[in-house]
Design a protein that fits this description.
Helix content is 35%, strand content 13%. The chain has 16 helices and 16 strands. It is found in: Golgi apparatus membrane.
């Protein structure tokens, strides 16, 4: 009887002889064992070949899907971009998203979802690619500011990047020297980089200034950029300004034109703040917009004459006989400790050639010629600034006269009716306009500011704004708190408002002047910054 162990050496050298001798191992058995051996030896190679084929198939499918997606996406009007550039940017964006954990990606994308774009009827629109397209042009990202020679219009902040939280605060200093005259220049039509925000994207705008929502059909007034003659005006960057405002207060003080500019500033900065992290509070004469993440406020204080008057009620101020005093203390106590103060006063001085002024220490009044009364008030204001403002902590600005456009004959349009239906700025800039501006008051402002020992930045908006007959709210606004009816809109001679300005619009340029002056100032020393941070932390600890 054979030992069972001898059958295990099937592939030994003796196997063929055994087959022939005994006839027990047919050829089929031999081939079966050979096949098993081959599969054991080369099985991994077969698997890798199959996986390689599958990966190639999936890659081709994904590439085809991306190509179809790039073709399906809408293009921003007026910009042309090579499709290979778009595909490259989309691929890089997809790779960045894949590398992020899901929670991290949702957190960083949250500001971008702050207010999805909608059409005029409120339907959500697909994301525009205007920001991506601008990358293909000479557009530095936030923080990569151009040199002095290339700042201004060329300074671009990619819209999508404005919504991305930065790892570290960027202490940017703009290269705009004090010797740069920002106010001599020309208006340039720019429908690529302007407006700086969309009317429907800023929920803080009041009905007084939302001209498009109120029925205006043309929007060209939003797309004019101011180009200084001998230097450049940096484009507004909300994150750069908010970093300057971190832990600080910025306050506009004055009349409804300064409130107009305050609304513009709120809309300019709010786009960089996530939803739920910004609030607006109105309390009598003081309106406060708060950016929580920056512990910063942008405020407006109603004081149409700067000094006390019988028109100081922000709701009931349309009094027929306006009286001003020689006192500023009641208002001034609200301005103390503010880090950036922006003053103005003008439009309320234009009702009468003489002003009614309460005599000091008396109940009797005097009738004083407008320019003389204006000088007296500005000297009172200058004295308050000298006594109450620390120049190491606070920057002070004064906004010059905001012009009116009441007579279309002033710009050679005898068929026009005030500023109604004007859609273009004055194009003939070879001669100064005569639109009724009281330039004597401008001279008073300049004289008083020049005489002050504390530095005050004079923002000269008057001459450049006189060309903007197209930018007023006209008949697309309120009258005594109510929107104009169709009948009232059809009567611009009676109802057109040629004093205030649509937003987005001209006041955004005024704020770009403020931005240039604030952000070009050197940052305080590291020691000062550290001390201020410790002080804030200690105060917060006490409050908690």
């Amino acid at each position: 009887m054979r030992s069972p162990g001898r059958r295990t050496f099937v592939l030994s050298p003796r196997t063929p002889a055994m087959k022939r001798k005994h006839g027990r191992n047919p050829v089929s058995v031999f081939l079966f064992f050979v096949l098993i051996l081959v599969m054991l030896m080369y099985g991994e190679d077969f698997n890798s070949i199959a996986e390689h084929s599958l990966r190639n198939s999936r890659a081709k499918s994904q590439e085809l899907a991306r190509q179809e997606l790039a073709i399906a996406k809408p293009r921003h009007e007026g910009l042309i971009l090579d499709s290979t550039e778009v595909a490259k940017e989309e691929n890089e964006e997809e790779e960045r998203k894949e590398e992020k954990p899901v929670l991290q990606r949702e957190a960083s994308d949250a500001p971008a979802r702050d207010e999805p774009p909608t059409d005029e009827e409120g339907r959500q629109l697909p994301e525009r690619e205007g920001a991506k397209a601008s990358v293909a042009v000479d557009v530095p990202r936030v923080g990569q500011l151009p040199s002095a020679g290339s700042q201004g219009h060329e300074q671009r902040a990619v819209t999508s990047d404005q919504h991305k939280p930065e790892a570290k605060p960027q202490r940017v200093v703009l290269n705009v020297p004090e010797t740069c005259d920002l106010f001599e220049g020309r208006w340039v039509y720019d429908d690529v980089s302007y407006p700086l925000y969309k009317e429907h994207e800023c929920q803080f705008l009041t009905e007084q200034v939302t001209c498009m929502r109120n029925g205006r059909r043309d929007d060209n007034y939003q797309k004019w950029r101011w180009q200084p003659r001998d230097c450049s005006l940096p484009r507004f960057d909300a994150r750069v300004l908010l970093e300057r405002l971190r832990g600080k207060r910025l306050m506009f003080v004055g009349d409804s034109l300064n409130r107009n500019q305050w609304e513009s500033m709120v809309c300019l900065v709010q786009s960089a703040i996530p939803w739920g992290k910004k609030t607006l509070t109105k309390n009598g004469s003081l309106n406060v917009f708060r950016a929580e993440d920056y512990n910063a406020t942008v405020e407006f204080y109603w004081a149409p004459f700067l000094v006390e008057s019988n028109a100081d009620d922000p709701r009931i101020h349309s009094v027929p006989n306006r009286v001003i005093t020689n006192s500023i203390a009641k208002h001034g106590k609200h301005w103390k400790g503010v880090d950036y103060l922006i003053f103005n006063t003008y439009i309320w001085w234009m009702n009468t050639p003489k002003m009614t002024v309460l005599r000091r220490g008396s109940t009797k009044y005097s009738r004083i010629e407008r320019a003389a009364a204006y000088r007296r008030v500005l000297r009172i204001w200058a004295r308050w600034v000298r006594r109450n403002v620390n120049p190491k902590k606070t920057m002070v600005f004064f906004i010059s006269l905001s012009p009116n456009h009441m007579r279309s004959e002033d710009w050679d349009n005898p068929e026009g009716i005030k500023c109604a239906l004007e859609t273009m700025p004055v194009t003939d800039t070879s001669r100064p306009l005569e639109v009724g501006t009281d330039w004597r008051l401008f001279a008073v402002e300049e004289s008083v500011i020049r005489s002050m020992r504390l530095p005050v930045s004079f923002i000269k908006i008057t001459a450049l704004s006189e060309f903007r007959k197209d930018a007023h709210t006209s008949v697309h606004t309120l009258r005594q708190g109510k929107l104009l009816t169709a009948e009232q809109q059809a009567d611009p001679a009676t109802f057109a408002d040629c004093i205030h300005w649509c937003l987005p619009g001209l006041p955004d340029t005024w704020n770009e002047f403020l931005y240039a002056r604030i952000a070009s100032r050197p940052w305080p020393s590291q020691e000062t910054h550290t001390h201020r941070s410790h002080t804030n932390l200690s105060f917060s600890h006490i409050v908690l």
